[in-house]
Design goal:
Blueprint lengths: L1 H24 L11 E4 L3 E5 L8 E6 L3 E7 L4 E6 L2 E6 L3 E2 L12 H6 L8 E3 L28 E5 L6 E2 L6 H4 L5 E5 H6 L3 E2 L5
Parallel strand pairs: 10-12
Antiparallel strand pairs: 1-4, 1-7, 2-3, 3-8, 4-5, 5-6, 9-11
The structure holds zinc ion.
Zinc ion binds next to α3.
């Protein structure tokens, strides 16, 4: 009787072993996806509870803040996360690079003090029950003019906040630029709202 039991156990052993092997092989493949970031190209952007302009406003996101993109939706809204806040913002006010932020009244000194590209700042929205949202001002965004490539080349310090363009990269004002130089045509530069540098023009 004892012998039978032993034999039986020996028969089961291979199954037990193979099950263990399968277990160790089946480790979760750690899909560590890199989170795509976008930057707020507006003086402030409203984070909403739902993808709708009439949805509850959850917070205001400062211009040039970095948000994590969770879902890029086809309806013009992007689901984002910033700090512990989750919600929806209008996709048109997001840009991929912080230096592409052209919105006025962005406090770049704050952004730089906070480490530049890592800058994230949200503030609470005052809730006004039952009042039409007259205060939900639309973000002020200076839209880039359509591309025109005519005219001589000009040089722009790509720090995202310059107001001038230069005729030469060796302009003394341009030498102070610690960012990449952007080359554009005069009309493109003017389309971005830039004016001639007083030193080199
Ligand atoms: Zn210049």
């Amino acid at each position: 009787m004892k012998k039978h039991l032993l034999l039986w156990l020996l028969c089961l052993l291979p199954f037990a072993l193979s099950a263990q092997v399968v277990d160790t092989v089946a480790q979760e493949a750690d899909s560590e996806q890199t989170q795509p970031y976008r930057y707020v190209n507006a003086s402030a952007l409203t984070l909403r509870a739902l993808p709708s302009a009439s949805a509850l406003a959850l917070a205001k996101i400062d211009g040039a803040s970095r948000v994590t993109v969770l879902t890029d939706r086809p309806d013009g809204w992007t689901k984002v996360q910033i700090n512990e806040h989750l919600g929806y913002v209008k996709s048109e006010y997001l840009v991929e690079q912080q230096q592409d932020v052209t919105a006025e009244s962005v406090d770049w000194s704050l952004v730089e003090a906070a480490g530049g590209a890592d800058y994230t700042n949200v503030s609470a929205v005052e809730v006004r029950a039952a009042l039409p949202q007259a205060s939900a001002a639309r973000p002020a965004v200076r839209r880039a003019a359509p591309r025109a490539s005519a005219g001589p080349k000009v040089y722009i310090c790509n720090n995202g906040r310059t107001e001038v363009y230069h005729s030469s990269e060796s302009c003394s004002a341009m030498n102070r630029c610690t960012y990449a130089t952007k080359v554009a045509s005069t009309s493109e530069a003017r389309g971005l709202g830039l004016r001639e540098c007083m030193k080199c023009y």
